[in-house]
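Two folds, back to back.
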Amino acid sequence: MTDPAGVTQPDLSVAAPCFNEEEIIEEVVVEWDGVLSGWPRPSEIVLCNDGSQDGTGAVLARLQQRYPRLRVVSYETNGGYGRALSSAIAATRGRWVATIDSDGQFDVADALRLLEQAEREGLDGVAGYRRGKKAGFVHVAADRLLNRLVCWMFSLDHRDTNCALKVVKGERLRGLRIEARGYPTPTEIVVRLLACGARLGEAGVTHRERAGGASKLHPWRTAWNFLRFLVYLRRKLKLYRARIIVEP
């Protein structure tokens, strides 16, 4: 399939935010491109450089010269994980879009498995759940507690709503309004997709130790902001279901 400009539409777009990942981003892009090069269908990688203050921008500019599959969206100032991921998604062209983090903790080969499952089962998307999450005890415990809270608040039955790795039909994901600016973003995607009637499956994915750089999370502040956003999103969905607002 080609777009109006005559460019072949990718079957899969890999979309990710990127902030201060100078230490690891080249290794990640090389790995992703290697996996996608061995896949017999057209693909692309779309990264949003969200106002990185280190050498991430220069590394990405150099990588674009070496890897035609890579496209980069850039901001001068940092706007947060949600804005960066939304911008990367908006710039994709694929029939399917994989969301993923750019810190090397996820294997893009898992995205191909999720896509295969979605096509085989006729789903709108498949959300990953992390098998053996690689993080500190407090982070893991808080993440599991928050997931239980999400499932209770929104009547869901998902093992890991906040896993970054998901594969969703491009038209579905590009049409989704994402309001979160930080950590709740992957959960918001799941909740909004299901509220809009999307058929969403689940599958286990590999979670690895961060190979470089540093986590941007502040556990207690992140958890507090997550809870506040959940309350906001739950109220908004109630208004949507009551037909008071036109979109969730």
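---
second:
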Amino acid sequence: MIVTIPILILIFMNQKKLLLQLLKALSKYLLLPFSWLYGTISSVRNNLYDRGVFKTYESHLKTIVIGNLQVGGSGKTPHTAFLYNLFKEQFKIGVLSRGYGRKTKGLIAADDTVSADIIGDEPYWYYKTLKDAKVVVSENRKTGLQYLEKQNVNLVLLDDAYQHRAVTCNVNILLTDYQLPYYQDFVLPYGRLREWKTGDKRAHFIIVTKCPENMNLEQKIEMIQKINPYDHQHVFFTGMKVLKPFPFKGQQSFENLNNGKIIAMSGIANPNNFLLSCSQFNRMITPLSFNDHHSYVKKDIRQMLSLLDENDTVLITEKDATKLVKPGLLKMIPEDKLFVLPVLPYFLFKEEEKFKNSVRIYLK
């Protein structure tokens, strides 16, 4: 009765927009009981692992987990690549991923016969970009580790395995987005957390990602205080450097195409940072966003082409580029119109060497 009165008043006043906002807010609060149930189940599961009731597997290889407490959008893929480049001179590295979004199951080792559909967009990008890495996908990380133990690797980077408690690793790296840190979030489905915030205690390193370039020391200290790290934890901050766009198809330089608008096409969890990166070129931006891990089809390319005028260009993420390498789609994409926008994480406050040395200690 209390809820229906304001709804009836809004209907009477013909305030459709306010009514929709109210209904949206009410529907979100209805999710709270399911969040408490989900959080309780994940808490019980974690407790059983902590007590040793559920057994875990520990490989003799050096292992680093890169993950988060929230679903999507924290920058796991570029940070995994960053770690590879940071340690590739010291170790022979394997990259192990679940292969989210792939159309296959089981363990698959990447080779020249695979595609994004077979191993997933992120592992396929690792395979194409990290030239000497041994890339493997497996839903069962234990099976994947046991396979890599027979390969010529001595360090494994486990992408998005923070909640995969069936394996124990040397280093747990927890990523969280500067714009929505995990300590301000709530458990699914009301929020975006995969488990309660107390899951951060398993991390050795907490990295706040996608920080603004001009972040100051006061802001850094404030965030560390809110994170309230345990004695064993280190907190670092990274930003994303936007590199020069390169042609997906064609030879033209992006700098020579400085007229018209940019179509910012992406199928990622949080396109806002991508749109912000596109805006640095001082051209009008038209977003074309799809769901995370979107599998592109011809209809999507036709939609993209319908937005293009003669002087316009399209920018896409590196992850999205892996899903456009299909014969049927490639034929539809005109040359010198679509460009890939690479990004590279960097440590703020000149702490890259400090981070590297700290990780080395855990690996020893």
